[in-house]
Amino acid sequence: MLAKQNTEVAIKALSVRGDFIMDMIAGKKKIEYRTWKTNYRGPILMCSTAKKVAGAAPGYAICVVNLKSIQYFPLEGFYHWNIELANVIKPIHVKGQLKLFNVDDNLIEPISMKEFESEVRPLIYTPRRKKN
After folding, report:
1. How would residue 129 be classed by pLDDT, with cut points 50, 70 and 90?
2. Which of 5, 9, 78, 112 could, after both became Cys, cross-link 105 (CB 3.0–4.6 A)?
């Protein structure tokens, strides 16, 4: 009997605050600040943390960025991860982890911005107004 080959291909993933991911998609955020570096370069699935932040989709991966380069700034004590948006994707529920982690690449489905708007809008957290 032949052993079943593992055909699962993984994409690197990173947990980031949801509002930061929305800024990446809008083109406002091109640097991700980290206290650690990696030798990895290439596509990274951006996974929104479970923390409920206004205007974000907590607990969902909603885009892929390309990690182009990393630079260390000793005065700041941070690494600047230079990123660019690669694709918005059909939202997938992902449990975040520390550092880079792997997610099954078969779950990633690039979509248009129009589809993105309709898919993500229902997932966006909007805080309730406090009653006086």
Report:
1. confident
2. 9
